[in-house]
Amino acid sequence: MGLTLEDIQAPILDELEQFEEHFRGAVKSRILLLDKIMHYMIRRKGKQMRPMFVLLSAKLCGGIQPATYRGAALIELLHTATLIHDDVVDDANERRGFFSINALWKNKIAVLIGDFLLSRGLLMSLEHDDYTLLKITSKAVKLMSEGELLQIEKARRLNIDEVVYFEIIRQKTASLIASCCESGASSAGAPVDTVEQMRHFGELVGMAFQIKDDLFDYGGSKSGKPTGIDLKEKKMTLPLIHTLNKSSWMERRKLINIVKNHNTNPRQVKYLVDFVEAAGGLSYSETMMHRFADDALAILKEFPDTAASTSLRDLVNYTIERER
Predict the structure, then answer these.
(1) In the predicted model, is pLDDT for residue 133 greater than 70?
(2) What's the mean pLDDT in 50-62?
(3) CA–CA separation, 103 vs 76, rounded Å?
(4) Confidence at residue 114, expressed as pLDDT on a 0 to 100 scale
(5) Residue closest to 205 by CA, chosen among 9, 14, 49
(6) Structural domain of residue 232, as residue ranges?
(7) How many angstroms separate the CA atoms of 309 and 194, rounded?
């Protein structure tokens, strides 16, 4: 893939540095243990796609303001808190190739760190009267929690159809990217209909993003090897849901039995992955992913052609072309 995140970041390089200053300031503490953990966390930051969506959306919709940086920091604080809590719940020892907070400092401290980040986000918003940004982000956290719980509820019975699946990923993943774009536009002082337009744009990108993640479970990465993580966790994702809908009763029974009882058996998982590919589950999912991405790109066409709109368009394409 020729496009890199560095290329996409070009119009907002200075602003991303300012965002990092805001974020570092937001997590600073006089408690040495807390400050040490924050330092570890900041040094291992990810691709910064969420701050990019906030900053580029603001730049597109009127210009980056002081509130834009606070909005980006708020979303990153809340998102990081949810990831830390997820690692505790999942008993995960790694995050982005590094030891997770709970692996190094144990569960109790990890939960408290997540709580600290949540409280910092809330206080930062209230200190600057950023009530609209707080409302946007709080709504996203609520939807993310509901999406996770809906997925857990359905995973117990493995009875997810496409309608339920799209509702889960809309809440669980797309709501956060939607809140990034909505916050960016709102912080720039854009009209209500433009803010809603950007929220919808972010939601569509988020849907495409999650389907891309689902495809990695079946080998859609540079290594070509399936990760099988979703199958181990008994998550019903789009490739499998589409395949089950097309399969006979006997085939469905066999596939569901593998997901329920043999999801850590390499031979059985390979059978399922091969079956899903042969049944068209992967190609169907790719088609749906491109459909969401195309709908998002169509929204961008309604805005003036600027460096910000170009970078947002490239960010959409990066989302569906990335190798992980």
Answers:
(1) yes
(2) 95
(3) 21
(4) 86
(5) 49
(6) 5-321
(7) 14
Residue 94: beta bridge partners? Answer: 99
CATH code, domain with 204: 1.10.600.10
CA distance 24 to 83: 18
- Quote the crossing angle between the two packed helices 66-90 and 13-27, to the nearest 10°: 60
Residue 286 has pLDDT above 90, yes or no: yes
Angle at 145 between CA 131 and CA 92, to 5 degrees: 120
Tally of structural domains, the chain: 1
Residues 6+ apart with CB under 8 A from 178: 140, 199, 200, 202, 203, 206
Q: Which residues pair with 98 in a beta bridge?
A: 95
Distance separating alpha carbons of residues 47 and 322, to the nearest angstrom: 12
- Looking up tokens 């040495």 gives 32
Backbone angles phi, psi at 297, to 5 degrees: -65, -35
Can you list the alpha helix ranges (DSSP code H) found in 92-221? 101-127, 131-157, 162-169, 175-187, 192-216
Stretch (H or E) spanning 254: helix 249-261
Residues 78-87 pLDDT 10s: 888 888 888 8
pLDDT digits (tens, 9 = 90+) for 90-104: 777 777 667 778 888
User: Rounded distance, CA 147 to CA 78, Å?
Assistant: 16
pLDDT of residue 227: 62
* pTM confidence score: 0.90
